[in-house]
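ARCHIVE CARD
CATEGORY: sequence design from structure
SOURCE FIELD: tokenized fold
FIELD CONTENT:
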């Protein structure tokens, strides 16, 4: 048998579908360390790309994005956004985080014309949504959980 070697991929060299697959598997692996099982959905279900199921039976609808993103179509859908940042992910309840950001972009052409806004900028108040291998807890923030 002949061995075949594979080099680590360069994320920026991947196409959009490959990036989505890559991000799903990295996120699913990270959440698995906190007892989650992640299920990929072949078609968006109420805006979700995946379901994150906790070992206690909680189910979270998650939309994968390449960066911090907001969209009017997600408002009221009880959806979480997960986006890679540095060595981990921001995982935030869309409507809750929207309250933190909306004053920054509600008058932008993107938000007014397309109903969406995204940014690569890191904001200090997003830290509570950050999760990586060093995190002690995975926290799904939401006013729904109150």
């Amino acid at each position: 048998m002949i061995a075949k070697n594979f080099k680590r991929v360069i994320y920026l060299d991947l196409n959009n579908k490959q990036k989505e697959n890559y991000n799903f598997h990295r996120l699913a692996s990270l959440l698995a360390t906190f007892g989650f099982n992640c299920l990929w959905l072949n078609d968006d279900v109420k805006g979700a790309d995946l379901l994150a199921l906790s070992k206690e039976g909680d189910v979270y609808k998650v939309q994968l994005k390449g960066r911090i993103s907001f969209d009017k179509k997600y408002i009221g859908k009880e959806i979480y956004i997960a986006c890679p940042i540095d060595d981990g992910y921001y995982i935030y309840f869309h409507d809750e985080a929207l309250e933190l950001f909306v004053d920054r972009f509600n008058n932008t052409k993107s938000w007014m014309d397309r109903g969406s806004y995204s940014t690569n900028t890191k904001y200090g108040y997003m830290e509570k949504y950050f999760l990586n291998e060093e995190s002690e807890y995975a926290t799904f923030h939401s006013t729904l959980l109150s």
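CARD ANNOTATION: Residues 5 and 11 are 18 Å apart (CA to CA). The beta strands are 37-45, 48-53, 59-64, 68-71, 79-85, 88-93, 116-119, 130-131.
SHELF: design records, drawer C
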